[in-house]
Amino acid sequence: MKKPVVGFIAGRTAPPGKRMGHAGAIISGSSGLAADKIAALNGVGVPVADIPSQVPILLKEKLEAAKKKVAKKAKKKAAVKKTAKKKAKKSVKKAKKAVKKKTAVRKKKKTARRK
Question: Each residue of 82-94: pLDDT tens digit?
């Protein structure tokens, strides 16, 4: 995923087997626990806030990290472009030099034929 993502899992203190708002939110056995969800999110690089007021802080950190990553990528791309431009200039110079050389050789041959 390329977009910065942060999370918050509500109901960390819910007791096992307790219905929490809708039928799909029942905690059964070891599946559906907040700790499992947090571990899964952290496992894929998504920071999870302990309290809702931490969400903006985590999001700011993620956005700053993403901004640095984009800047680094842009800098690298610019360097590659600059290198390619230099190579192209060298190729053009080399081609012009070769054309000049061929032209000079042709002129010499023409003057040699005239004599």
Answer: 888 888 888 888 8
* 16 or 43, higher pLDDT: 43
22 catalytic? Reply is yes
Q: Which sign does the torsion angle of CA 31, 37, 42, 43 carry?
A: positive
Does the reported pTM lie above 0.70?
Answer: no
- The domain spans of the chain are 7-114
Which of 2, 3, 22, 114 is an active site residue? 22
